[in-house]
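Assemble and predict.
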Amino acid sequence: MIELKDVCFSYETVTENVKLILNNINLKIDCGEFVTIIGANGSGKSTLAKHLNGLLVPTSGDVLVFGANTKCEENSIFVKKNVGMVFQNPDNQFVFTVVEEDVAFALENIGVPQQEMRARVKETLSQLNILEYKDASTAELSGGQKQLVAIAGVLVINPRFIVLDESTAMLDPQSRKDVMNILKKLNSELGITIVLITHFMEEAALAGRIIVINEGKVELDDNPRRIFEKLELLENMGLSAPQITEFCDELNLLGENLPLGIVDEDECAAELTKILKDP
Amino acid sequence: MITFENVTHVYNQGMPNQRVALDDINLRFEDGEFVGIIGHTGSGKSTLIQHMNGLLKPTTGRVLIDGQNVSTRGLDINLNVGIVFQYPEDQIFEQTVFKEIAFGPQNMKLDSNEIKKRVTEAMDFVGLPEDMLETSPFDLSGGQKRRIAIASVIAMRPRVLVLDEPTSGLDSIGKKNILQQIHDHHKKEKTTVVLVSHSMEEVTQHVDRVVVLEKAKVKMEGKINEIFERANELREIGLDIPRISVVFLKLKELGYDVKNVYTLEQAKAEFLRLKKHLGFKK
């Protein structure tokens, strides 16, 4: 479990006029959750993500990872072992050029014996369906494959949490789906908690819980349906709802009575056929 | 007009890692058109656009701009074809926003009044305030940097504006704004615009014509409605079609007589038409 208690953050010394990047954040993320974080550019969501594994520590307030305060130096390894981070551009994360070596890097760092290391890397690569690229150069891979290798580099240390900071932003739709499916699988089969920061509303809607960050604060924290029924509020924060939600909303303005916050194509089609049944 | 005649591009020809990035491409981009290029990572989109200003030369075949071969024509081609690359903010290097945007016009040897005028215009185009001109571009947010990178190409007033994924990494409003500005610019200046994108939803709102690339070849080409007649093929090659189109395809599968739609406006109109057709009073 990760807890954020009254977390404030600023890159500058805090005086009266300094704008806080994170402004009194209180959150609790439980084990096994699949959470997405959305927010406009500059809302503070990446800064928030970097607090989850101690890459940044709060200016005031506390972040506790299974009770361990990220502020304490001696908790650093424990925190990083439990919370893995994947970023937007996988190229910036690779240390070695061969897939297998790169994935092994984190294990080498914590002194895992050679033989066990090989076995764990192999297991991780097959969990992500990329074992066939074991000996490939990272430069030869497609964007989606690279991102899976980056995820492997984190997954290999068996973290309880994986935080992904816009890790799907550079991918094409198919690769994005592949990565999302893998994340779903890691969540449901291995019980790994996923925290995904994204600009894609359709992607956000796939999570059990959405946290909306606005101007450094938690503005909304709810299930997708309850989030996306608040169209106007989202728009005011520089966000939009999935296209389907907007469509239903527009029909409602024309006098229909569709449920709010529909995000799924099948559900939308089903609701439309209900209307069309009795003239 | 830009014409691709039997253009093939092979990377690392003759080497073990040889790869065909473009395979016998024939395309034509008319003056004043707004064209979308859609395809996966690795389908050849970026290689294709780099042929438009001679950054890359065809291995075989030729690219013509107004009838002249791009490969043999000199540097002035860059003035006609402005390319905004993916993540252009990574290429920002000047100390101030003004200098960054003025860099292109300066290289064109324009006088200082003209340069100032161009910079002001370009800032206005991307919707950034003039008081930002003396700030360092590195102090700005990602979305603002993106706009500045686009402005620095606009300031050269290219006749053909090519944008490679101009909205990736931006939030929804940022996306909408940038696309709208490009659209307005196209309407006002009659600039030819080529928009490269992963997203059908994005492209369908703005373009006249779509080119779908798949595995180094032109898989489809035509007006949006023609492309959408083949929605299932698009899905087979893994391209996302707008969600609203999916809903209407489902209604069709359920036996309703609906047309293919790809924007919210069309979907609304089509739904109202269907209701009327089925005998609803309202």
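The beta strands of chain A are 2-9, 22-29, 34-38, 60-65, 68-69, 83-86, 161-165, 193-197, 209-214, 217-222.
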